[in-house]
Amino acid sequence: MLPRVFHAEDGKDLAQRIQPRGYLFSIVKYFGPFLLLAAGFFIFGARFFDTRILKLQSPKSGFLPCITVEPSGINRWIKPPSSLLHNMSDHELFWLASFAPEVKNYPFKRLPKVAFMFLTRGPLPLSPLWEKFFKGNEGLYSIFIHSLPGYKASYPKDSVFYKRQIPSQVAEWGRMSMCDAEKRLLANALLDLSNEWFVLLSESCIPLYNFSIIYKYFQRSHFSFMGVFDDKGPHGRGRYNPNMAPLITIDQWRKGSQWFEVDRNLAIYILQDTKYYAKFKEFCKPPCYVDEHYFPTMLHIEKSDLIANSSLTFVDWSRGGAHPATFGKDDITEEFMKKKLLSGWDCMYNGQHSSLCVLFARKFAPSSLQPLLQLAPALLGYG
């Protein structure tokens, strides 16, 4: 084989093929340190960001970043929602809240709480009084507020009512939408497994005793409290619609107060009901007021052995009319509080006669706040 002759053109071609490699080597030579430094900053930044995320998610911080680590293990079930805001429909919410554990021995230390559920149109004018009632009892209560959808609360961050509004819808007096709002409150409160007792209140309600007395009253009671009675007049049986039979007969028809206290088992049962709900939604419309008949009738038929047939919230119907009396500034005196609200009661509590029969009262106008604040320490035991 003859040796290949090397020409000048070959050297030129070789130089062109070698040049890109030499150029790349030059880039690495001059810019390599900068690339290594940038990589170091990237690794450090990633670790720092991860550390910050973990710190922000710690229990000591109330702020949750957009990127969160979902709780794992038992914590995903026992930890109450960090925010009351969600985009679940009522159907989804009720379904989720209706779960009940079959094993009654909880695998964690459960401290039972009272869920105070406020059904309001907007603000809570008596909130300063409630603040004094709740003070010092952290961990024993939770608060839920259902207001008109357009209302934006402005409670300060140190208020017990701060960010306690739940997703709400319009609730019309006397219609099923009112009971829907009550069920919405129950469902949101049930998402916290530590809530054991559920109290429905309005913006015009006040507590008549200190927190300790009310908590022990619920804790020791064998029953839930729902006003249930058979009113044979036009405002009771007179509102019955025969189309409800045979599911509900006129002999089973009951009336009661809208304001109730139920335990966890009854709260779940109320959410699970569909058959009575459908009948009331179709056949109980004004002048049949569903919020006065639906829960009392249903629980009388299905769970009468679990309710005390009485409400724990006092209202005064003595002045007549479609609504109970409203108490203003001039009504709030020491004599009024003692005679009207704090004495003269006789009821059954766990099968025994008791003088402690009502724990809350309504309707109190915003003007009553200042005299109530003055009388509360001596007469009501808080403030």
Automatic annotation (TrEMBL):
Protein name: Core-2/I-branching beta-1,6-N-acetylglucosaminyltransferase family protein
GO molecular function, one term: glycosyltransferase activity
Annotated organism of origin: Dendrobium catenatum
Membrane topology value: Single-pass type II membrane protein
Residue ranges of the TM segments: 30-49
Record flagged with keyword Metal-binding: no
Keyword tags: Glycoprotein, Glycosyltransferase, Membrane, Transferase, Transmembrane, Transmembrane helix
Alphabetical list of InterPro entries matching this protein: BC10-like (IPR044174), Glyco_trans_14 (IPR003406)
A GO term from the CC aspect: membrane
